[in-house]
Amino acid sequence: MGRRCRDWDYGGRGIYMVTVNLKVRGKPLLAAWPEPLPVSGRAQDSGDGGVISMPLTPLGEKVLACWGRIPEFWPMVELLECQVMPDHFHGLLFVKDVLRSAGGGGVKKTLGDIIRGFKTGCREVGWEEGYVDNILFREGQLRRMAEYIRENPRRLTEKRANPALFRRVVDLPVDLPLFFVSAGTPRFKARFSAIGNTSLLCWPLALQVQCSRSDFRYRRERLPTGGWKILRDASGVPFVEFATPAFEAKCEDALRCAKNGAVLISPCISHGEREIARRAHFAGARVIALRNKGFSKFEKPNGALFEQCAKGNLLLLAPAAWPYIPGEKPPTRESSLILNRIAQLLAGEGAAEIDYHGVVFRTSTPRSTMPCKPPETAVFRAPPEVVVFALRLKRRCSALRLKRRSRANHSGATACSSASICASVPMVMRRYGAVRGAGK
Fold first, then answer.
1. Is 14-161 assigned to CATH 3.30.70.1290?
2. What integer pLDDT is reported at residue 62 of this predicted model?
């Protein structure tokens, strides 16, 4: 069952992109699989704008016929675009007025009633329960969604031609150093979930993308339900509120290194880091983008990310322990610290020095000399989980101090001593020692 937009009237006027899946995914029940791509990896021009057609099965023909009959039962609905895929269906429709069925006696209906009737008309297909909808709010979304639906067969062809680049890896082991970089550094196994070209993790040259929020920001507006929404133009490009010269210099340096063969590693936390990653995608650079949540079962990159993934220039990476959450997950301080630390460990000698709200991750590598040789001396670095543990311990000690002072002020006696507060500090060393020993 797909999620629904909170506080949205699904019985009123609106444009929707609807996706309905079969219970059995991965079998061509509605249409034949498209032919494999040529060696070039791109679809040949089939005389229809480069769109690959797929022969429909009898079930697929019935699905298409049922979709075309929706305006007979719902006169206020206009069908804009549709695409029958081997194991799912995409449809784009415009509700021009308040939804009321032809013989409904004035009873208001919703988008769910339309999709329920459509699925009932071809129930023998074996639909999955529910559906997924996307509401088109912004200018230019209609054109992009129509292009997405028309291009779906070509993207499916590219996925089948490069299955390893689009396969979701649930438990990907990656060796990360416990220290910064030096010969013989102890290492530990980190687990990630990933989509894309995992060989980028072994790339010889890497550069971490790090940008402060004070250097760059997209234009935003506050939502009525809370939070912020980034404003975009008709083509989907975000509007820029401000960009400092320091950001432009950092972006130019990153793109120069990428052009010279480095892979960019970005935690994609701040707007500046997202913008540098976006420019790198359009420049055809190799990018490892970190995420603060896992991947859904059938997730795949969209838009420019899909093209980069098909070329082997993209790897989406998230800690394996972080589950998938529908929608956008706001970053927290702890998740940002972990992603920044992971980006540093992956980048190695190309890591950036980070000062995140008082937590400093230092590196002695000069960024202007990238690519450069590894430093001769290693700088101590704790693993991400130790950093988070230390932060929690710091907050715990602060809370105990406040509690002790409060009790002392009221009773005139000391509730707990400083020794008892600091007794937990060696736990950090013991925990780090356990991790360090496991990595040897």
1. yes
2. 94
